[in-house]
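Saturday, quiet lab. Running sequence design on the structure tokens for the scaffold JK sent over.
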């Protein structure tokens, strides 16, 4: 709605400039001036700029990804199992660790609004952000519960929490799992090869 309002205001400003400041001697078109006003109006009413905090209710896609409004947000500093990933527990039984991680994150968030501070952008338009519900850092909580591993390339911030979860054999650490960061890397490599070929 604000985009339409911005376009209308820009058009009105351009039209007012044409009517109030006629240039009959040069007989030139006022279209470039109108285009400048229109572009300025659209930029003024554009969506939030990159780097601005995202706030609102979240929809959990998997243990490391949420939707905040129309924005896809990857939790900063962690790699969580994909929604369809399976792992083995301490008795070597297969379980849906990806769904378990997503469910735990959804339970933590509940119906509360989250706040996400963007750190970077991913290919495909996703935002990488440090997200919190109340004062709780979602990425730190996921790693501390053993439901995700730290992305050691991005930041060593969660390494101590991962060591504690490993020592207590929590979540993923209670059995055998494929490292979500390695899995993500292989998917990215396969996509690059597919796009190049």
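Result came back. Writing it out in full:
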């Amino acid at each position: 709605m604000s985009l339409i309002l911005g376009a209308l205001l820009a058009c009105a400003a351009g039209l007012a400039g044409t009517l109030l400041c006629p240039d009959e001697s040069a007989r030139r078109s006022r279209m470039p001036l109108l285009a400048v006003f229109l572009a300025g109006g659209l930029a003024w009413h554009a969506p939030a700029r990159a780097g601005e905090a995202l706030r609102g209710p979240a929809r959990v896609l998997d243990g490391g990804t949420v939707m905040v409004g129309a924005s896809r947000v990857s939790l900063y500093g962690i790699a969580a199992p994909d929604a369809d990933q399976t792992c083995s527990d301490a008795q070597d039984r297969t379980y849906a660790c990806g769904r378990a991680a997503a469910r735990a994150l959804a339970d933590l968030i509940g119906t509360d609004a989250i706040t996400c501070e963007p750190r970077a952008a991913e290919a495909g338009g996703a935002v990488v952000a440090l997200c919190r519900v109340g004062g709780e850092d979602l990425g730190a909580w996921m790693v501390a519960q053993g439901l995700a591993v730290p992305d050691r390339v991005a930041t060593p911030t969660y390494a101590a929490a991962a060591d504690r979860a490993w020592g207590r054999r929590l979540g993923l650490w209670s059995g055998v799992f494929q490292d979500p960061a390695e899995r993500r890397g292989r998917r990215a490599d396969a996509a690059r090869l597919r796009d190049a070929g």
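Notes for JK: The CA atoms of residues 63 and 101 lie 5 Å apart. Confidence is low (pLDDT under 50) at residues 1-16, 23-49. Ask whether to fix the surface positions before the next round.
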